[in-house]
User: Fold this.
Amino acid sequence: MAFAYLPMIELPFDQRIPIGTLLVGFIFVIRDYAQREIGSRVYAAMLIGVVLSYIMADPFVAMASAVAFGVSELIDAIVYTYTKRPMRERVLISSAASTPIDSTIFLLVLGFFDWIGLVVMVVVKMLGAVIVWKIAK
Assistant:
């Protein structure tokens, strides 16, 4: 819904990104913490998230959002699970693996892929992970 109904943020180089991009970065981090608390039951929550993403999004972005969310969240969860590092490092590593994939899939499915847009979206999404990495112990 954030991608369909909230305004775009104007950036340099004729780029615009949805406000929802900021939220996605934090969702990856929240999923990591949820997995730490509830273990593999997080996969059921992820599936519900994919379905809700599809149902609630505008038809134009529904498929792109659901596919990008599903694939990237699964990658995030796998990397988080098998990276035996301290929590703050796992958050950063799993987000670094999943955010470029999320942005790439989303932009490709929508037919709006360009390299500058991809870099901007990845950097914005990584902000959440970097904030957690800086403050977590």
Notes: The CA atoms of residues 106 and 112 lie 9 Å apart.
